[in-house]
Amino acid sequence: MPKVVVVGDANVDVIVPYPRFLNEERTQVEYPQIGIQGGGTSANTAVALAKLGLDVSFVGTVGDDQYGRFVMQDFKDAGVDVTGLVADSTLSTVGVFAFVDDRGERYLWGWPRERQSFKVLDENLVPMHMIREADWVHSSGMCLTYDTSARETIIRIFEQAHDAGVPTSFDLNLRVDDGVLDPDFAAALERIIPNVDYLLGSGPDEFAYLGDDDMMGNATAYAVDGRTVIVRDGARGSIGLTQDGLTESPAFRVNVEDTIGAGDVYNAGFIAARLAGASLAESLREGNAVSAYKVARRGARSSPDAAQLHEFLAGQTG
Predict the structure, then answer these.
(1) Which H helix or E strand runs over 92?
(2) Is 102 within 8 Å of 75 (Cβ atoms)?
(3) Nearest to 42 by CA among 67, 86, 14, 5
(4) Chain center to CA of 233
(5) Burial level of 255, CB count in 10 A (0-12/13-18/19+)?
(6) Where are the domains of the chain?
(7) Are the CB atoms for 96 and 12 separated by under 8 Å?
(8) CATH number of 3-8+41-93+114-314
(9) Could you say which of 152, 163, 242, 254 has the lowest number of CB atoms within 10 Å?
(10) Dmax over Cα atoms in the chain, in whole Å?
(11) Model confidence over 210-259: pLDDT tens digits?
């Protein structure tokens, strides 16, 4: 069974639906139940990989608090190894409150705002042998957003993996304020990308900010030195770029319930397919399928297991 190490952020998602009015006068109100589940861009990918049957380990930091214990148990329940997950009593695990309106749109707010655990990753506590012995290493840009130990350690982890010949993938997960990418964050990306074999990201939301206004031109610029670039483009599907050209895979048509985590679980489908020996086109299709399955259901952790994915693909023509 292929061994994947996922490095990065893990938190809890607290889902708070808006009250639902049952009559035009708004005198009858239903208060949907608040829910809590595991979250985090890297953590979502790790759990989705485990559901697909891969041997997954997670490396990161949580607080030694109620949320941190929830994250730890959630990983264990999903079959994710937590040997590399540190619980630090001086830090706080972030709870991301997702306020959901009657159209399904989400408005996110994270708390607490200080001593956030995902920003910390002590290189001395990372089991580097696990990195060098893995069949694949994955992370996301969430932990590179800030000038912290997590940024520096993840860059170092990718150097170690690359030097050991371990395939690596990195999801951009850009955080863009007012249409401008933070120059410090951009510089961090340029430090890690040379050690990335598969660079993934959203076309309009991420690659569009890595250069000029031409998102495909920007993405193509990174498809050098043997690197494969994956452009996720929502309802249009996904595109793979290599030095040899372009491969497209259309999206599957489903009724969309919830898009949170769609990119995270796409990554899992793509990685699982590549590790199984699938072609680039087949891997794009599997990434699309895992993402489509998830967006038709609520929650970032609603991706399929291997049997559910097989059944979904068997019923599709996309």
Answers:
(1) none
(2) no
(3) 5
(4) 15
(5) exposed
(6) 3-8+41-93+114-314
(7) yes
(8) 3.40.1190.20
(9) 163
(10) 66
(11) 988 899 999 999 999 999 999 999 889 999 999 999 999 999 999 988 88
